[in-house]
Backbone:
């Protein structure tokens, strides 16, 4: 690593060459305030809070916009700089509603924290809050432009991390606002509901559609027609390694047993684990892969368990629809199994089941009534989706002392899972789980080493070749939608020339890091946090007695007693779906 020698506030430091002054200061443990900068994004000098100056120079400049140079002597904090930062904050607050008590980010807002740090007690400028309506048009996220501080993170995330380009700045001067491109409603825009904008917004201007009250009312039988409902819940793989953060635990701490206990205390009559239906997904998708691979039909197969990716493919890449796996996501497979198999086994009227799922994801809210296949049980298979953040709030409202909860087990039906089901929550996890079982389905032998390390980690695109007893299977894993086109273009080029696809199997997850970095996870995710959450999942996998989905005894029983075999007519009816091209804009 090349370094340069600089001084911060008179003290010498050796820092990495090429870093911005802001990043170099952070590496030297000097915190410079900021609102627009984020570790996932390129700096773009919007907020003006990160100003610094050089020694013996009165001129101030934005530390995110200048790289460190050999010999620089940088002043990051003095009374003049602090005063200018305070003025910048006061100007931001003069066009902010400042209704912290009623805001979803209360207690967890970067602007609120800065106002507290700078001791702002009053704003000496007239309040000129833009009167802009909320956009509630999607079932996943809400955009409240009146709270926006124009930092631009959401537009950068949407354009540069997700390649969706649903958000942009419209208007000029005081009229500037963040809005869906072409000034349509979000629901009519190319938005794929990934929620990454909400995860990166420093204030409460974009947030998940909050359905906590709706779930409370149902559980407590306080709504018309819900007196005798039977509330049940499932929890997704990535929730268990992140929800603890809302209660002071480190990212990656595995909280499965505590979560089961908390969900029972909230009033759910049965607690299921989506890790189980992740195993079921592997059996269906793995069988589909083996069938296509051995007949060389519609290869590559592309995974389909991420609803934001489904939405993206249907809008941007519909030439590849035939390559999409028809297997539903684990959430939807579980929903279908609850209202059929579970209802039958427990003799519960399926029409009375209120099926809640807890997901790291805002797009899952959109998925649960995405098309008619999500009603395969004869009812809506999953009734409502809460994000990890919503469940954490619900637990706090219920006064649950998370730290003191004793571990409990999930219900016996639809909960037993393998290590393969657990790792679904990390990028590469679906591929690794699928290959563990594909090896068995092709060779009838077990994979000697189930740790497929080349598909793990945070590289945007991971490519690997897996040897299945002399047959090579070429795979690619992409996460963060901006990485998808590189992979798909390679496939398109080869197929257009009549050549073999460079990949046989492709995994795509919309969020960076996969679901551990989902748009509904606790705020503040960075690569360091995503890696810690993923490490928690791999630890859970390593500690599992059974690490391959096809070895899950509950899965074997369900095929024997209920579904027949993977890919059967009944499995297709309940566990598979279809896709159709969509327009980028509905209007
Ligand atoms: S949810 Fe995702 S696609 Fe939609 S606006 Fe936000 S970042 Fe863009
Ligand atoms: S909505 Fe949030 S992330 Fe987007 S520009 Fe406004 S404050 Fe920044
Ligand atoms: S990667 Fe996971 S959290 Fe993100 S949109 Fe897809 S399913 Fe949801």
Residues:
């Amino acid at each position: 690593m090349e370094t340069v020698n600089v001084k911060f506030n008179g003290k010498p430091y050796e820092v990495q060459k090429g870093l911005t002054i802001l990043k170099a200061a952070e590496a030297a443990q000097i915190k410079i305030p900021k609102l627009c900068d984020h570790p996932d994004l390129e700096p773009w000098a919007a907020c003006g809070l990160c100003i610094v100056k050089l020694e013996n120079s009165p001129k101030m400049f934005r530390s995110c916009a200048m790289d460190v140079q050999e010999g620089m002597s940088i002043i990051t904090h003095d009374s003049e700089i602090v005063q200018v930062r305070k003025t910048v904050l006061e100007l931001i607050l003069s066009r902010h509603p400042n209704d912290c008590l009623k805001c979803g980010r209360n207690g967890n807002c970067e602007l609120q924290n800065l106002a507290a740090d700078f001791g702002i007690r009053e704003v000496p400028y007239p309040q000129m809050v833009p009167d802009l309506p909320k956009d509630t048009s999607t079932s996943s996220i809400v955009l409240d432009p009146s709270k926006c501080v124009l930092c631009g993170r959401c537009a950068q995330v949407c354009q540069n991390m997700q390649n969706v380009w649903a958000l942009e700045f419209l208007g000029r001067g005081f009229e500037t606002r963040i809005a869906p491109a072409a000034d349509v409603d979000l629901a009519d825009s190319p938005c794929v509901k990934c929620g990454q904008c909400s995860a990166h917004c420093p204030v409460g201007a974009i947030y998940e559609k909050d359905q906590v009250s709706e779930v409370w009312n149902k559980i407590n039988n306080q709504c018309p027609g819900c007196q005798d409902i039977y509330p049940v819940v499932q929890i997704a793989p990535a929730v268990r390694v992140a929800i603890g953060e809302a209660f002071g635990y480190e990212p990656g701490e595995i909280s499965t047993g505590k979560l089961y206990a908390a969900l029972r205390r909230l009033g759910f009559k049965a607690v299921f684990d989506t890790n189980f239906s992740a195993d079921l997904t592997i059996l269906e998708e793995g069988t589909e892969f083996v069938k296509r691979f051995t007949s060389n039909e519609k290869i590559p197969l592309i995974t389909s368990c991420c609803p934001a990716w489904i939405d993206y493919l249907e809008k941007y890449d519909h030439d590849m629809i035939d390559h999409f796996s028809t297997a539903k996501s684990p959430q939807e497979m579980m929903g279908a199994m609850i209202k059929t198999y579970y209802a039958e086994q427990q003799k519960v009227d399926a029409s009375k089941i209120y099926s809640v799922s807890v997901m790291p994801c805002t797009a899952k809210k959109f998925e649960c009534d995405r098309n008619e296949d999500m009603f395969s049980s004869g009812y809506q298979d999953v009734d409502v989706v809460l994000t990890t953040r919503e469940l954490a709030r619900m637990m706090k409202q219920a006064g649950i002392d998370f730290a003191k909860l004793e571990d409990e087990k999930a219900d016996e039906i639809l909960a037993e899972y393998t290590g393969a089901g657990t790792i679904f929550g990390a990028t590469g996890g679906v591929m690794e789980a699928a290959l563990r079982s594909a090896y068995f389905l092709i060779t009838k032998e077990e994979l000697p080493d189930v740790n497929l390390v080349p598909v793990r980690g945070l590289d945007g695109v991971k490519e690997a070749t897996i040897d299945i007893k002399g047959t090579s299977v070429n795979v690619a894993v992409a996460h963060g939608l901006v990485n998808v086109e590189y992979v798909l273009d390679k496939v398109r080029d080869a197929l257009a020339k009549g050549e073999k696809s460079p990949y046989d199997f492709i995994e795509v997850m919309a969020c960076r890091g996969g679901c551990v970095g989902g748009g509904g996870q606790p705020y503040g995710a960075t690569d360091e946090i995503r890696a810690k959450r993923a490490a928690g999942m791999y630890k859970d996998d390593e500690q599992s007695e059974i690490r391959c989905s096809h070895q899950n005894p509950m899965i074997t029983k369900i095929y024997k007693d209920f579904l027949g075999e993977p890919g059967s007519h009944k499995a297709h009816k309940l566990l598979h779906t279809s896709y159709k091209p969509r327009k980028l804009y509905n209007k």
Remarks:
- The mean pLDDT is 96.
- The chain has three domains: 3-77, 132-209, 214-575.
- The first helix runs from residue 21 to 27.
